[in-house]
Design brief:
By secondary structure, the chain is α+β, with helices and mostly antiparallel strands. The protein contains 8 helices and 13 strands.
């Protein structure tokens, strides 16, 4: 079982994920920054560090594997223990262990572990933003005959137009004034009667669209999350699974970073979301409340 995949998923929601009897991966937040030497802007981020002294099992990783792997808690616990034993044996033989998505662990001659993160940004608020190099456009200091000719070219049409307009005889001027007065009255046939207005039975497209938006697509600021998934197909499968269990309002609410979020239900207030979470927590212990305001 791909243990590092579950660790990576948890780090988007938690600041610390303990791998029992091995160590803990810790998410450290940093503010947005700017490097003047390279003109690079970096977004706010959450990078990963490793602490080999935190080895006590808190159940978080095993519970995640059991729930989303579709296995029992005991089976998930055995899977974690087997993976940890494999990691330890690999480090004893090769001294280097590459964990995709997380980073690289190295063991020195004294048995001490060092960790080099992969550089992935685990801060959901950054929406997967990457570093950006600024490109500056400097003002041109070139002055010459070309600039003067452009100014002359802009003025000439105005002068010619004014001469042609005001130099015309009065009748032509009157005609121009009439055309530019805003409206020319049409000639109407007094014997023709206006046709009665027909009321269309078709509903307004705007009304239907607004109804659809209010009834189907409304997503409130506080969401009771069932899980987050890397693939849209996995998120759709989770929604279908919840629908079969009777959670009719379950839906995929948004994509943050590389993950699609599936919610049991969304609420306008945090209190309502927390109350609802209590009703599903026993069956789904990993359920949590996502706030789009905090």
């Amino acid at each position: 079982m791909n243990l590092e995949k579950y660790i990576s998923t948890l780090l988007y929601r938690h600041d610390c994920v303990v791998v029992p009897e091995f160590g803990a991966f810790i998410a450290q937040k940093t503010n947005a920054g700017y490097t003047s030497e390279t003109s690079v802007f970096t977004p706010p981020s959450k990078q990963i560090a490793f602490n080999p002294s935190l080895v006590k099992n808190d159940g978080l990783l095993i519970q995640e594997m059991a729930q989303f792997g579709g296995i029992s808690f005991e089976k998930a616990k055995d899977e974690v223990e087997n993976a940890v034993q494999f990691w330890k044996n690999h480090l004893n033989i090769n001294s280097t262990l590459v964990l995709p998505e997380l980073g690289t662990l190295k063991k020195d001659e004294n048995g001490l572990l060092s960790f080099e993160p992969s550089g992935r940004n685990y801060l959901l608020d950054s929406f997967g933003l990457e570093s950006v190099r600024a490109k500056y456009i400097l003002p041109s200091e070139t002055t010459g005959t070309s600039t003067i000719w452009w100014k002359v070219a802009a003025v000439v049409p105005i002068l010619i137009g004014g001469f042609l307009y005001f130099g015309k005889p009065q009748p032509v001027t009157d005609f121009v004034n009439q055309q530019w007065s805003g409206f020319v009255s049409p000639v109407l046939n007094p014997n023709v009667k206006a046709a009665p207005a027909v009321i269309s039975p078709i509903k307004s497209v705007e009304t239907e669209a607004e109804t659809y938006k209010n009834e189907v697509l409304t997503v409130h600021d506080y969401q009771v999350i069932s899980g987050s998934f890397r693939k849209a197909e996995e998120a759709d499968a989770q929604v279908e699974k919840l629908h079969k269990k009777g959670f009719d309002q379950a839906k995929m609410t948004q994509k943050k970073g590389n993950f699609y979020y599936v919610a049991f239900k969304t609420f306008p207030t945090k209190e309502e979301a927390l109350e609802y979470r209590k009703t599903v927590k026993e069956e789904f212990p990993e359920t949590w409340v996502l706030s789009l305001k905090e």
